[in-house]
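INFO batch 0412 | record 1 of 1 | parsing
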Amino acid sequence: MVTGSSLHMTPKRGSLSHEKSRLKELLWLMIVEHQPNCIICDEPFIRSDILPSRGSDQLTDHHTDHNHYNNEKGNQRLAHRQCHKGHHAKDNINFWKQFE
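INFO prediction complete | emitting tokens
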């Protein structure tokens, strides 16, 4: 719903936060149905970590082939942010070990 004159249209107060809540709920339902566990640690996602009321979420996407330009559906999986950081840190350590 929009209030105001035709020259100055503003959204009804609260409608944006309602829409955001509705989208968060839809996101959670999609996660539960399609990929309820982290691709790296296989632990289940926790709703409050994914949809915090404040701060950043604790969820990120992981490219299974490590090619960040390959955004095909089958190449992207959800991971806990900390698991993802640890996974790539180990990859970097292993990469540099080959030069020792």
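INFO post-check: The first helix runs from residue 15 to 34.
INFO record closed
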